[in-house]
Amino acid sequence: xxxxxxxxxxxxxxxxxxxxxxxxxxxGTIAELQNEAGRKALAKVVAEALDQASAGTEQQIxxxxxxxxxxxxxxxxxxxDQSRQAGEQAAQRVRAEIMAMDQHAPxxxxxxxxxxxxxxxxxxxxxxxxxxxxxx
Length: 136
Fold this sequence. Notes:
Blueprint: H1 3-14, H2 24-135
């Protein structure tokens, strides 16, 4: 605050007129200097606190990043394991089906061969009968 403003405010509030050279003005100067020194010290403390908070935040962000990476890696591993297990189970079911079909295949093949020979024999009998009918 300016000296003239201080003198005017004191006169207004206390009805006392001070001179710029009045010893009481020294107290005002000393108080102003003390306030300025206190503001500088406080600004320094606040800046240090902000730096520490910022460093702490960076550490928390890094820790969170590592935790996130671990979660994602774990989830990917779990998903890969589940896919592998599902593939193995599907392959086992396919193998079982193929083996079952393979065991039935010879019987079915014999049946098909018998049916084919029966058809050929029946056709031969029909042809022989037709030829015999024509010859008679």
